[in-house]
Design brief:
This protein is α+β, with helices and mostly antiparallel strands. It is built from 14 helices and 27 strands. The strands form eight sheets. Strands 15, 16, 17, 18, 21, 22 and 23 form a seven-stranded mixed sheet that branches. A five-stranded mixed sheet has the order 10-11-14-12-13, covered by helices on one side. Strands 6-5-8-7 form a four-stranded antiparallel sheet. It comes from Capsicum annuum (Capsicum pepper).
Length: 660
């Protein structure tokens, strides 16, 4: 518990912590619990939304208090806050928790406020308004009233002015005079005064200041004593108050910042460390891996250190750093080493290095060693401008899975929302949901939807591409069910979203299913959607359509309607396009039949593919993709040969055999 050393009502609204309890002995008795208190000496010094350690800031008082709690009660592992929609508050609690190795709990985060208000009415039997500061609320009329009395009026104000009915940053604060943690008694106000903090004509601010009260003993206890019996601090009299004094001690901080390149690494030549780099305007991508790493390093950690160090060097050479990275694909050869990968990764990509927010990430296992790509293969997408917007929620809540680590839920840049890979985790428990791959898929889609809504978009209307990674452990019959379920689930989400929404255009996304050896947490499904959040442009003009219709063929191919059988595409004219060409054995034969190339009988009977046939099929794919680009006012200059907004990727079966 924190309160100012010199308590002035007219300064109450200017502080981060908003509400203080001067009668801490009474609070300790009510809760039948141990309380730690400290005086607030810091002020608001760090003004950015994201917080970094700032001496003299009020957040450091919270660090001092929680640091002492952790020292005296080592079994404490988490901190709960009441943030509903305030990124400012949540980010500061998360910053302190991260420094102390604690978990941030924010189970009110993004909850429906009408539902929360009803819960307060149902369970806080005699809660009264403590402060009012919103349009339509008058201190003389509404202070000191029970929430049940105010509820209809609050909903009316919501309809009239769009206010949030119980969120703290809109300054409607409620103190629970009887709360369920109060085991012994409840407080009854005998006398109070209303202090007018601001006489604003639209939204006057008033505070209820208790002058006299008494305790009313409760008939029976609702909860048992929740004190940690193993802690020495809680033995004996449980109605204990500890005052935390002194300066902030940064005991929870890391002793020193990791310096890339400082640890011993294997000797690697330029020929062994491979890099692929492409660029379009101010956006570029880098792929890096250690060729045949078995000869040069002993484990995944060494591979990752080499690759991450090289990428960091390349970023600097291009006038960038980790703070410019939008997205990272992390491919590893063995998911059993996922924890090692994270430990190494977080030493390079830190909050301190990423002032705009850490990039989003997707991690899957691939058979890298079998094809000589080392134990770790990393792709990064970089933008040489500071316009990215990052959503990074580290608190555990009911909203969406937390990202307690070095990556964010989503990154927005140039109207493209890159979302981290989503597993079928129950957000409140961070445990994979039960029910198999279909249940995990549904939960992963719901998690994706929750994150998308934070950017005013929806997986049902704004998705342009959805990669669905499926674990090889899924039975073949279940893979088909997963694909069908994804389709039906998306259709249902579109129907639900259509009710009451006015959206001029609904995108029909491309779904790509990729079978992988393993996923994090032994998940069966991982969903990685990409969204377009910008404005929708009009389609091609009549002149453009006429030009497109007279387009010349290529390599002897002329457009026929059956060409569309193998094509999936989703495009926003002139802005972005995703397209997938799937060539089956039957289609390959039809494509090759258009030319004079014939497949020898001995090759055909063995299921092999002639090299010349592969060239023909590749040319057909390029021809068809060229037509897609032309139809959407795009060109090959807009395509990057790596993952990106526009990318060219090749997938082929692992049993494809080519004979020359």
């Amino acid at each position: 518990m924190m309160f100012p050393k010199y308590f002035y009502l007219n300064n109450l609204c200017k502080m981060l912590y908003l509400c203080y309890n001067r009668d801490v002995e009474v609070a300790s008795y009510l809760q039948h619990n141990v309380l730690f208190i400290t005086f607030l000496v810091g002020i608001h010094r760090h003004h950015d939304l994201s917080y970094s350690m700032t001496p003299g800031d009020e957040v450091e008082d919270m660090f001092k208090l929680l640091n002492e709690v952790k020292r005296q009660i080592p079994s404490v592992t988490a901190v709960s806050s009441g943030a509903i929609a305030s990124d400012y508050q949540r980010l500061r609690v998360e910053s302190v928790c991260s420094r102390l190795g604690l978990v941030s709990l924010a189970y009110l985060w993004k909850q429906d406020q009408s539902f929360l208000l009803q819960e307060m009415v149902n369970f806080c039997y005699t809660s009264e308004s403590f402060q009012v500061a919103a349009i339509g609320l008058n201190p003389s009329k509404h202070l000191g009233k029970e929430i049940a009395y105010l509820e209809p009026h609050l909903h009316e104000l919501k309809e009239l002015y769009g206010i949030n009915v119980c969120v703290t940053f809109l300054f409607f604060l409620i103190t629970r005079i009887m709360f369920q943690l109060s085991q012994n008694a409840r407080i009854v106000l005998d006398k109070f005064q209303i202090v007018l903090h601001s006489s604003d004509s639209i939204a006057p601010v008033g505070i209820l200041h208790p002058l006299a009260f008494h305790l009313e003993t409760k008939v029976e206890s609702i909860y048992s004593n929740g004190i940690d019996e193993d802690s020495n601090v809680c033995q004996g009299n449980v109605d204990t108050v500890f005052e935390v004094q002194g300066d902030v001690q940064q005991e929870g901080e890391a002793a020193s910042e990791f310096v890339a390149g400082s640890s011993k690494r294997p000797s690697v030549t330029k020929q062994e460390l491979k890099v692929s780099k492409t660029m379009k305007d101010n956006v570029f991508s880098i792929s890096c891996w250690l060729q045949d790493s078995c000869k040069n390093s002993s484990d995944l950690q060494e591979d990752l250190e080499v690759v991450l160090t090289k990428i960091e060097t390349l970023l600097v050479e291009n006038g960038s750093s980790w703070e410019n990275v939008l997205y990272i694909h992390l491919y590893i050869a063995d998911m059993d080493e996922f924890a090692v990968a994270n430990e190494t990764y977080v030493r390079y990509i830190t909050q301190k290095k990423c002032r705009y927010g850490v990039p989003s990430r997707s991690t899957i296992e691939l058979p890298l060693l079998q094809v000589g790509l080392g134990r770790a293969y990393i792709e990064v997408l970089v933008a040489n401008d500071p316009t990215k917007k990052v959503l990074h929620v580290q608190s555990i809540s009911c909203w969406a899975p937390s990202c307690i680590g070095p990556y964010s839920q989503a990154t927005l840049h140039n109207d493209i929302l890159h979302m981290a890979g989503q597993l079928g985790l129950d957000p409140a428990t961070m445990v994979l949901c039960k029910g198999g791959p279909v249940a995990e898929l549904e939960q992963a889609l719901e998690n994706s939807e929750a994150v998308a809504r934070s950017f005013n978009c929806s997986i049902s209307t704004s998705t342009i591409l959805c990669l669905i990674y499926c674990s090889e452990s899924i039975e073949k019959s279940e893979r088909i069910i997963v694909q069908k379920k994804a389709d039906t689930h998306l259709k249902q989400m579109k129907l639900d979203h259509a009710e009451g929404h006015k959206k001029t255009m609904v995108l029909d996304p491309v779904f790509l299913y990729v079978l992988v050896p393993d996923l994090p947490k032994r998940a069966l499904v991982e969903v990685k959607p990409m969204f377009y959040t910008g404005e929708y442009l009009s389609g091609p003009s009549d002149l453009d359509k006429q030009y497109q219709s007279t387009g010349q063929g290529c390599w002897g191919f002329e457009y026929e309607t059956w060409h569309d059988i193998c094509l999936q595409k989703c495009a926003v004219y002139g802005k972005i396009c995703t397209a997938i060409l799937s060539v089956t054995e039957e289609l390959a034969a039809k494509i090759c039949s258009l030319t004079s190339v014939a497949c020898p009988d001995d090759v055909k009977s063995k299921g092999l593919v002639d090299e010349e046939q592969v060239i023909i099929i590749a040319r057909f794919c390029i021809y068809r993709l060229d037509k897609v680009l032309l139809e959407n006012n795009l060109s090959w200059a807009d395509v990057m040969v790596s993952f990106s907004t526009l990318a060219l990727l090749f997938y082929f079966t692992n049993f494809l055999e080519v004979v020359s």
